[in-house]
Amino acid sequence: MSNILSIFVDYLSLDLDKMNDLLFYAANIEDITLDCVVGHDVAHRFPLHSHRSLCIGLVTKGVRSMNVSGSHINISENEVFIINSNQPHSIDDIVPHSYIALTVNGLADNTVFGNIVRSETAAEMLKSVAEAIIQKSDILASQWSLLFNYLKTNYLFAETIPSEGLMIKKVKKYISDNYYNQVAISEMAKEACMSKFHFCRQFRQKVGMSPHIYLINWRLRHANKCLKSNMPVLDAAIDAGFYDSSHLIRAFRSYMAVSPDDYRRAFR
User: Fold this and answer.
1) Residues facing 27 on adjacent strands
2) 60-104 pLDDT, tens per residue?
3) In percent, how much of the chain has pLDDT > 70?
4) CA distance linking residue 245 with residue 247, whole number of Å
5) Do 35 and 103 touch, CB atoms closer than 8 A?
């Protein structure tokens, strides 16, 4: 059993064999929010999606098989993986594996990292950050600073994320302002001053996913925030722009591998 999973079991007084597939925690460092997920023998297909936040993870058992920005990568046990902000990725192969994943919201910079980090030092630092989140330790800020600065010093790929173009940025802003409404693809194309066909092709090329999937991502992000604040599932669904709770439940299970109710209970 890895150290981090041992800590989870001791901390929650659980038998590892009876653990849920996923456990969720969150912590704040000034304006930064760190969400921590620990997955145990997860075998779930995660559809194509992206995060507005930086995601840093560690495979603690098995192999994580992912498609990132159109390329297939395998992350082996004790290897760190990084998904940059707005980087499309999916998990298509059902390969049971265990992992820790941190999503970091509120970072001031838009630095871009390589997707695989083969470093025992980075792995141990990430475990320390996760442990500090789980145990609500006052050393979290220093542990996070050590990890982030180590990655910036050794695994920085680019200083900033390349621009997607003014029209695509305009449409993304339109989606962020209207995701809770029933936004049609034709309305997005009109906003971009393009035909529907040309817009969909350009959006997919620039963003790495279809406009519809990008819209669903925005709705799920908002639903995620609502559920973390203990909002009822039906209210979260309506607030995020889903037709009803059943639509949210299906999408949430697909993208998060848990039900909205289970996710909401994790943050009570």
Assistant:
1) 34
2) 999 999 999 989 999 999 999 999 998 999 998 778 999 999 999
3) 90
4) 5
5) yes
Percent of the chain as helix, strand, coil, to the nearest 5: 45, 25, 30
Q: Given its phi and psi angles, is residue 241 left (phi above 0), alpha (psi -120 to 50 degrees) or beta? A: left
Question: Token pair for residue 204?
Answer: 């997919």
How many residues does the structure list for the chain? 268
Residue (of 56, 76, 176) closest to 122 by Cα position: 56
Query: Distance between CA atoms of 31 and 62, rounded to whole angstroms?
Result: 34
**How many Cβ atoms from other residues are within 10 Å of residue 218's Cβ?**
20
What integer pLDDT is reported at residue 263 of this predicted model?
Answer: 93
Q: Which secondary structure element, helix H or strand E, spans residue 5, and what is its range?
A: helix 3-12
In 179-242, alpha helices (H)? 185-191, 196-207, 211-228, 233-240
Single pTM value for the model? 0.87
